[in-house]
Design brief:
The chain is mostly helical. Helices cover 79% and strands 0% of the residues. Helix 1 crosses helix 8.
Length: 262
């Protein structure tokens, strides 16, 4: 019973913070599930994708009539690009992990790349007010950015959350609060495509998904709580939540790397 509660709380906490800061939840869940060590990388990816997808559906429904602004066109183009990149990234991941049997090595590479990427994003978001941002309108460039975003997110198994937010701030000059909900919109498509890819390739039968019945309800509840809270808090508070959460994830990721090396 305790283990069921732990997995429910992981889904709840990750998706509450994810819905508020546009992180999605996958970026929080992956290091935590890695730390628990109960499942392999492929199973963790599915558990995370299903939980984050459920959160994204709830969040989009909850904020559709709020003052938060979704840039439907640009976010959709990024989403389309990220879906294509997601298929490529997941294909690369499946080849090295499933077919080549390099799960341990790839897991270490994932953790190191994730730590480096998160540190860069943390520094950017901490000082983004001093950095020149843009208003990109070129649709081909937006698609390409989405492609790279999806490729990295799928390979790292993080759902794209912090990458989405940082890119939306940088290339569209969005504030963090608007970037967070646009990030959730993009995450909806990326996680849906990830789940479809598993369904049409290996199917779900080879994986132990017993904990999905506890993580998905946590994700749904987290999406409801997070999307309600984000409507009531200021942009500066969203930025603070984003940075604090990112810092915690960086520390957990570094801890996982150290434990792998010991």
């Amino acid at each position: 019973m305790i283990i069921f509660i732990i997995y429910f709380l992981i889904g709840l906490i990750a998706c509450t913070a994810g819905a508020m800061a546009g992180l999605g939840g996958g970026i929080i869940m992956k290091p935590l599930l890695d730390m628990l060590g109960h499942y392999d990388l492929s199973t963790i990816g599915i558990l995370s994708a299903a939980t984050v997808f459920s959160m994204s559906v709830v969040s989009i429904v909850k904020v559709r009539n709020s003052s938060l602004h979704i840039n439907w066109t640009n976010s959709l183009f990024i989403a389309i690009g990220s879906i294509a990149g997601g298929f490529i990234g997941k294909g690369i991941f499946n080849y090295f992990v499933v077919q080549s049997g390099l799960s341990t090595i790839i897991g270490m590479i994932q953790s190191i790349l994730l730590a480096i990427l998160l540190i860069i994003i943390f520094i950017f978001m901490k000082y983004n007010h001093r950095i020149k941002t843009y208003q990109v309108q070129n649709r081909a460039l937006i698609l390409f950015i989405g492609l790279i975003l999806g490729l990295l997110s799928a390979f790292l198994g993080i759902g794209g959350g912090p990458l989405n937010v940082a890119l939306l701030v940088y290339i569209f000059s969005m504030n963090t609060k608007d970037a967070s909900i646009n990030s959730i919109f993009i995450i909806f498509f990326s996680q849906l495509s990830s789940l479809i890819l598993v369904a049409i390739s290996t199917g779900y039968a080879p994986y132990d998904l017993s904990m999905i019945w506890f993580m998905v309800p946590g994700g749904i509840l987290g999406g409801m709580i997070g999307s309600n809270l984000v409507k009531k808090i200021s942009t500066s508070v969203v930025e603070r939540i984003f940075n604090i959460t990112l810092l915690i994830i960086i520390l957990i990721t570094i801890y996982n790397i150290v434990m792998e090396l010991v």
